[in-house]
Amino acid sequence: MTEILASRAFRGPAAEDAIEAVHNDLDSLWLDVPFVNDMDQMTFTTAVIESASNIVQHAQPAGERDVELGVETTVQPALLQARVSAYYAKPPFGPMEASTPDEDAESGRGLALIEALVTTVTFERQDGTNTWVLSRTSSQD
Amino acid sequence: MEFSYEVKDSYAEVKADGRLNMVSAPKLREFVTDVIAGGSNRIVVNLENTAFMDSSGLGALIGCLKAARQAGGDLRIAAVQPQVNMVLKLTSMDKVLTAYATADEAFGND
Prior knowledge:
The structure holds two protein chains of two kinds.
Chain A: E1 6-13, H1 16-32, H2 38-58, E2 68-76, E3 79-87, H3 110-117, E4 120-126, E5 129-137
Antiparallel strand pairs in A: 1-2, 2-3, 3-5, 4-5
Chain B: E1 2-7, E2 12-20, H1 25-37, E3 42-46, E4 50-53, H2 55-70, E5 74-78, H3 82-90, E6 99-100, H4 103-106
Parallel strand pairs in B: 2-3, 2-4, 3-5, 5-6
Antiparallel strand pairs in B: 1-2
Helix pairs in contact in B: 1-2
């Protein structure tokens, strides 16, 4: 069985406040697992915040209910994993492929950045929920 | 995130303390736009106390850079911390947003 060393879970309206709450959750998570090195903490936090921000900025409600953001983060001995979900959301539109915008573009770098920060990114859609699963194999000091 | 600025001899120094994310990014743009409108077109954004930046924050810096150049000046960044440096490198924007060790050095040779 997989050993979970520490975890955090957030769920709430997909709004700006959620981003600060998720970031605070991550900061407190790292205090529980000081053996996770600074580089892993930094990269994983950035990837999770990018994904959560993407949902807050772009997720569209599928029906009358507002979109909710869910972020479940777990630390295993050699693996950091986050499930970043948009509940009650339409399927994402457009290509979910990382782009390389012009150097003076002010947006469009998020997905490429996420891919550069974690080992794998997968997408699932089930029961009206879009979930991005971010995994980073923890490096050794 | 808290913003402040100080007009120096040859540039205006803007400090952005905290997390530069999707919440604070539009506020940074607005703040720097106001500094430029106030007559300073050479801007140094001091990132000494910017512990975190995401792609929204990066987009805001690029927007501020364009605004400074449109006003006939430039925008440079200083005292970049490790997470911000990582985001700049991974997006190759370290070539566009030139980083200096201190705010004083940013326009030191101009």
